[in-house]
Amino acid sequence: MEISLDLTVAWALLLAFAVYVYVILDGFDLGIGILYPFFPEKRDRDLLMNSVAPVWDGNETWLVLGGGGLFAAFPLAYAIIMPAVYPPVIAMLLALVFRGVAFEFRWRAARLFSRWFWDAAFIGGSVVAALTQGIILGALLQGIEVDGRAYGGGWWDWLSPFSLLCGAAVVAGYGLLGACWLNMKIEGEVQQKVRRLARLFGIATVAFIVAVSAATPFLEAAYFDRWLGWPGILYVAPVPVLVGLFTLLLARALLADGRDWLPFVLALGLFGLCFAGLGVSMWPYVIPTEVTLWEAASPYKSQLFMFVGAVVLVPVILAYTGYAYWVFRGKLDPEKGYH
Amino acid sequence: MDLSFGVDAVLLARIQFAFTVSFHFVFPAFTIGLASFLTVLNGMYLWTRDETYLQLFKYWLKIFAISFAMGVVSGIVMSYQFGTNWSVFSDLAGPVIGPLMAYEVLTAFFLEAGFLGIMLFGREKVGNTLHMVACVMVAVGTAISATWILSVNSWMQTPVGFSIDPDTGQFLPEDWWAIVFNPSFPYRLAHTLTAAYLTTAFIVGGVGAWHLLKGRVLNKGVLTMFSMAMWMAAVVAPLQIIVGHEHGLNTYEYQPTKVLAMEGHFDSYEDGVPLILFGIPDQAAGEMRYAVEIPRIGGPILNKPWDAQMDGLDTVPDELEPPVGIVFWSFRVMVGIGLLMTVVGLWSLVSRVRGRLYDDRWLHRAALVMAPSGLIAVLAGWITTEVGRQPFVVYGELLTAEAASPLGAAAVGASLVAFILIYFAIFGAGVVYILRLMATPPLPGQRGVREEPGPIRTAGIMPAEHQTGDMNKEGTA
Description:
heterodimer; A: mainly alpha; two-stranded antiparallel sheet; B: 14 helices; about 65% helix; globular; disordered C terminus
């Protein structure tokens, strides 16, 4: 039984890792779509899109691993959460359809109207996908009504000021990631503009982090105890302190020129800290205060069968994904694009 | 606004799943074969250094990029449909099929997505050899993906290797080997992969035929693609009939009711089983109206003697019968197309032997008409097998009606309307873009995925085009 307990925790960590990788990777390419309205010139837009064209597909695969992994390792959680957040999930999927096809359709559009349409699809799809992901997170944090082994609430329960706040926070955060990515990939005037946008989205992101963090302890008594109770506060205090530190470092990196990779790395750190904070709030629940990880876990045999493969395959995936990124490293040449 | 259309949530959820999965599968059915075709083309180019193959590679790569993107985004929808609309099924069957789907993500999706960027954009950056490796990885990834998801589907058709948790009702895995290699899996995998290759062969052949009919007989790329596609049709179409037949025998062994519906056998037979060619199934009355049948042939087709005795649907309780009309007709559509494909394949062999492959205009017309036939056959086949296993979602174990999410009909209806509107708009546009690319012939100096069309940039950079006849008349316009 003890091994089974450990395997459940291992799966929770692996899934958390998959979701984090998804958030940072698709975060920056969704961020490109969020930044698109600030670049009305076709030439700039081509460049922005080309900076993620070879990798966006792989980035989005982590979302499938997150969903598929939840289904496989915690089927009960998957079965309760999906109906609970049905409208935002459907909206997210359709938004991803729009922006995904825009990557290819934009280049095939022969008329001005259709190019405008696919640009709008790319922007709208990216914004709605980010917004709904935040809303889903907010809905999960604020609690989901469970009835037996099924969702017990109505189909508007997910909508609340808090979930909308989380949605806006994710839009801002992905915008920041996108701007920091472009800062690495692009030179010249466009880069200067990107840096200005990064500062803007950076300020917004940090403001949202503060707002969400301030609201979270008041959602559930358990969150309050964990974050503000004594002596627990001593253990969790490093998270907000580090957020402050990373914010300062990011501000400095965005104000000074040079070291174009640094803001992106710091932004990843900021996201990592938010993720750690999320873990602190939710542990040991998969659906806060209703269903624990162990209650939702699939049987030992299911978890073990997958775990053997995951231990071997995840490092291999990271290796060739890293290789694909390495191939397309460095600044983009606006004259060339890809052939 | 009431979007439930007076229909219950389960039926709406079924329609939604059928709609989204049908739209999705059209793209993998094409890209599984196309990825292999591209890999062969690239390999032939590296082997022979014949520019024709490179030209064809770039030509089909653009079409592949669009199809693949549509397959990916419609596929992400599928990975969440289980939870959103079939949450009871997800909870109960998750321990068995969840890990198989996780393996699909880990072994296939990442492989395809990771190497797709290099395949599309990376030849100059990584060199020919690694680019070839990337092509192989993408092609292998598509096949691995099909393997896992067909294992999942097959387990739902012929479930083995599990027990039922007495407390939760969950399916518990007992023997992974038995689950993955369940009885119908090898047959379904072979039948589906072969179908994907045939689908691609007929699309490629249809495009080749179109350009041949347009008189582009001096364009070597057109000739090569038509010839390669017809070889594929000639070899694989007859093979598919054998594979499909074996799959049918396997189905008769494990899901006899489905085969009875496919064959339209409402009645039991005491002395010899007829083969019903056509008829109007009347399920309420339990009889086949206006049946056109050949006596006694039906037995040997199912490996039974001429004078076989066989139980019909009249021995099956009404509530456990699938909708016979749909299954009966979709099966006939699939088989009919399969036979026509074989005819075209053999016809091309005859023309080839006579040296008339490139100027047999009736063959070209037939190949053009048959271009989308693979897609239709694939959908008809899936309708046959999926409707044929009703009323079960896990055959013999879990009823479809008991597997749906606790959602109101209005919620499911609203999302169904959204899916239908958006899918038709988006994938309609995608098909238009693909057809537009197909309508231009492959040209020397074929442009890559991101090199834009435009009269200014292309003018003068293809000096060879005027020597190759009139093929580029509308090609660069």
